[in-house]
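Look over this today:
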Amino acid sequence: MRLLIISDTHLPRRARDLPAQVWEEVDRADAVIHSGDWCDLDSLLSLQERAERIIGVYGNNDGPELRERLPEVARADLGGVRFAVVHETGPAKGRENRCAKRFPDVDVLVFGHSHIPWDTRADTGLRLLNPGSPTDRRRQPHHTYMTAEVEDGRLDVRLHRIEPDR
């Protein structure tokens, strides 16, 4: 199973559309995980038209139209790996332990908000992933997203940079 993991797309404020490189990944993915801050309903609707499956949540910048359609926390079993998705997890310090207590029944927590790529594990084994942002890098050197392959309950994750020429 192939996954695309994105967050903080902030459309159309930070970009008019997702980069072509991300749309190519949407077309290849069995599921797209989006951890919030879509910012407009059209971005969700466009993704729904192309993606095979979406697991998404709303973020702090998402208004009523998105909050009516998306949960604050989403959960899914994908290829034998238990995922939870949320936008905000609080400060970086203590994040792993705090999230392990909040999500004791999942293998992977995907989050956003910071625009900072993140891939760590809590002592409990919970893996925390933040794909950064493909459209609003803030103080990061690159716009980013993640892909993952899930097979037999194993997860292989890759962080990708948006290539400006694509």
Summary: The mean pLDDT is 96. Residues 2-161 form a domain with the Purple Acid Phosphatase; chain A, domain 2 fold (CATH 3.60.21.10).
